[in-house]
Amino acid sequence: MARPIQALREQATALEAALAVCAANPRKKAVHRLRTCTRRIEAQLELLMQLRDLPSYRTQATAFRRAVKSIRKLAGQVRDLDVLQQMLQGLRLPQHNHRQKLLKAIEDRRQKRADDLKQDLEQHIPKVAKAIEELFTALKPAEDLALPLRQLLPLADTWYQRRTRSMKAVREDDLHTIRKMAKVARYIAETGLPAKQATTVAARYNRLQQSGGHWHDALLLTRMARKELGKKDPLTKLTSERAKTHHNSFVRLLSAA
């Protein structure tokens, strides 16, 4: 059986730990953990919204989302820059290129965003802690809520289809939304499952998330290369070609789904 509220509590505990670690030093692993915790909590809240006969809790859920909104945004920006740095270091390039110039620009921007994240954490950690406490107070009457595991994937499918039904693969904004929705659907489907079983159950959403993520990261790197090096620079052209390749792969995967 899956226990969504208990899973939510576990994620909230992990989030509070990740917040403390990032406030001290927003290193790559810590930021990734923080970002993942916020996404998994969002997925649990979306799962609860599909269930009936729960106590009134949506006001508290909205307050929690509001408390973590800026943290999620800034952590996402730092995480994106960490990924771009890793991607750029892994590219095979001609001997003469502007890799180091672009890496320096990424590092400078990363430092600025990390400083912004630390400041935001100092301001919002107490608000997040209060929002978490109030959320679980509201949900306490349903603490032992349990769902058969076989219900999770259909719930994830229904949620995903409802959120993406009007999306078009020819629109870039829609592709970004589909990518994010696939990640949330994956986390819904994985609720309460062991890691190996979760990967199997949520395989379709994991593939969509990964493919969309590759495209998103390549697109961000292209935009940054264009800004720092100019659109005619060979490195900019290379990243642009990679972004197009990942875009086409993502669209094909969506078409086959």
From TrEMBL:
Gene3D superfamilies: CHAD domain. Residues 1-257 form the CHAD domain. Pfam families: CHAD (PF05235). InterPro entries: CHAD_dom (IPR007899), CHAD_dom_sf (IPR038186). This is CHAD domain-containing protein.
